[in-house]
């Protein structure tokens, strides 16, 4: 709560409002010192217990991983892309692994993969797995900051628990299994969104993430429709800079990617398989076809408009909605993975901030007096957690072409993430509407807020208004 109040007073303090100069990289040592201080302030016994639980969980994960086997095929593709750049080979002609997988990211991303060629595959398997576990903890920390929950001295305990236990969430499990970069991208985006709106460089990390993988560009749209125009343009210009770098170093690959390979969906994978947890994938399985056509496009468009509208509505209702920015960011993230033509299960690592947000709502619900307490957020949290722990899409028969012929009873578990994401957006809309009604505000009129201003004390207002 102290953080929110200080942020609410920030516009009155000239040095914070107009930092001079805005060199974001200088904050790294300060962040390290703050992390050390937070660990020192954490209760010793709970932190030790959490560390022990996390260690046991990671040992169990390593054991399961050993017996299940992990190909880390995406890591192999990344390394091959970096090798193609380093040795001047045709980037988009390569085919690697037994599945003959091609390069699918922009040339800028392939350039960033060059350092992976300096090490052997055995070392990379260990380093990237360990790095992803660390990134999972970082994502938890950024999620706690976004939600402003729990107390600061308890957050190191939460980070340790999420890093240790979060490996069992299916999107995280498959990210580790394939050696994917989803956690790194989510950390880049969430770090940027957590920064004060007054920062001139806000949007740079989102632009870099979009330059690596196009989907994060939707967060620039989120910044734009929530009135943070400068940050949106910074993100857009940064993305253009990544394009320029790719064009300067790899002109042929850049031309090929943006004029041909980007639009060849067969390079990415099949739309109808259960691995694809987007709206389009769910519609394809429902229609028993590999090309769901116009219906899937319309469904995606409806979800895009509804999701972004809900995200903007939550952000602009932060005066009455506790954790309004967190609701907005999570809605934007869910919308991004829902409307992407292909969203593999590991793209849903955004379940981490989603679950943290729902846990904060459940904790606040539990802290209310018994006379006004309602059992709503805890069941929602439990169901959402169950969805991301279920691995249900892998349980239904899906070998060969069975994805295209799933019976009605198998459609729900095969589309568990699109259904969960759509339900999350609906819950967010009901949450915003309830808070606005409780405050006596009309649902459609948006409040006029100062640029960069934040609500003074949303948590205290939530205490005064038990409705919603």
From TrEMBL:
What broad class describes the main subcellular location of this protein?
membrane
**InterPro entries, A to Z:** GT87
- Transmembrane among keywords: yes
- Provide the transmembrane region boundaries: 46-64, 118-142, 154-169, 205-225, 231-258, 295-314, 380-396, 416-434
Q: How does it sit in the membrane?
A: Multi-pass membrane protein
Q: Per UniProt, what is one Pfam family of this protein? A: GT87
Q: Where is the composition biased (Basic and acidic residues)?
A: 456-468
Q: List keywords of the entry alphabetically.
A: Cell membrane, Membrane, Transferase, Transmembrane, Transmembrane helix
What does the UniProt entry say about where the protein is found?
Answer: Cell membrane
From the UniProt entry, list the residue stretches annotated as the region Disordered.
1-24, 441-468
Superkingdom: Bacteria
Family, per entry: Belongs to the glycosyltransferase 87 family.
Mind telling me what this protein is named? Glycosyltransferase 87 family protein
Origin species, per record, is Kitasatospora paranensis
């Amino acid at each position: 709560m102290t953080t929110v109040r200080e942020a609410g007073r920030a516009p009155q303090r000239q040095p914070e409002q107009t930092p001079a100069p805005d060199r974001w990289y200088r904050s790294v040592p300060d962040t390290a010192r703050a992390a050390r201080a937070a660990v020192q302030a954490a209760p010793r016994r709970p932190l030790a217990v959490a560390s022990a639980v996390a260690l046991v969980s990671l040992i169990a994960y390593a054991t399961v991983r050993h017996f299940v086997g992990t190909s880390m095929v995406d890591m192999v593709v990344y390394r091959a892309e970096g090798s193609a750049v380093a040795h001047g080979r045709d980037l988009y002609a390569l085919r690697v692994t037994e599945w003959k997988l091609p390069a699918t990211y922009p040339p800028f991303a392939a350039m960033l993969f060059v350092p992976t060629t300096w090490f052997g595959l055995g070392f990379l398997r260990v380093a990237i797995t360990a790095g992803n576990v660390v990134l999972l903890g970082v994502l938890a920390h950024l999620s706690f900051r976004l939600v402003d929950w729990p107390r600061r001295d308890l957050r190191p305990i939460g980070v340790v628990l999420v890093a240790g236990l979060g490996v069992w969430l299916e999107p995280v499990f498959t990210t580790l299994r394939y050696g994917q970069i989803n956690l790194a991208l989510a950390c880049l985006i969430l770090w940027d969104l957590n920064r004060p709106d007054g920062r001139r460089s806000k949007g740079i990390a989102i632009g870099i993430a979009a330059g690596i993988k196009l989907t994060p560009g939707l967060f620039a749209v989120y910044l734009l429709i929530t009135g943070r125009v400068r940050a949106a343009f910074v993100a857009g210009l940064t993305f253009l800079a990544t394009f320029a770098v790719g064009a300067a170093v790899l002109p042929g690959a850049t031309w090929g990617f943006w004029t041909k390979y980007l639009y060849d969906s067969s390079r990415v994978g099949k739309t109808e398989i259960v691995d694809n947890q987007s709206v389009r994938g769910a519609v394809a399985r429902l229609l028993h076809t590999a090309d769901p056509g116009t219906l899937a496009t319309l469904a995606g468009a409806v979800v895009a408009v509804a999701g972004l509208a809900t995200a903007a509505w939550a952000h602009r209702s932060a005066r009455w909605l506790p954790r309004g920015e967190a609701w907005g960011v999570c809605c934007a993230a869910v919308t991004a993975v829902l409307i992407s033509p292909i969203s593999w299960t590991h793209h849903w690592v955004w379940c981490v901030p989603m679950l943290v947000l729902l846990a904060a709502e459940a904790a606040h619900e539990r802290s209310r007096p018994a006379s006004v307490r309602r059992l709503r957020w805890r069941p929602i949290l439990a169901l959402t957690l169950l969805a991301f722990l279920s691995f249900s899409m892998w349980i239904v028969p899906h070998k060969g072409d069975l994805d295209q012929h799933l019976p009605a009873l198998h459609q729900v578990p095969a589309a568990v993430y699109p259904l969960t994401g759509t339900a999350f957006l609906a819950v967010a809309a009901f949450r915003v509407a309830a808070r606005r009604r409780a405050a006596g505000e009309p649902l459609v009129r948006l409040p006029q807020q100062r640029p960069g201003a934040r609500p003074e004390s949303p948590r205290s207002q939530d205490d005064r208004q038990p409705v919603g």
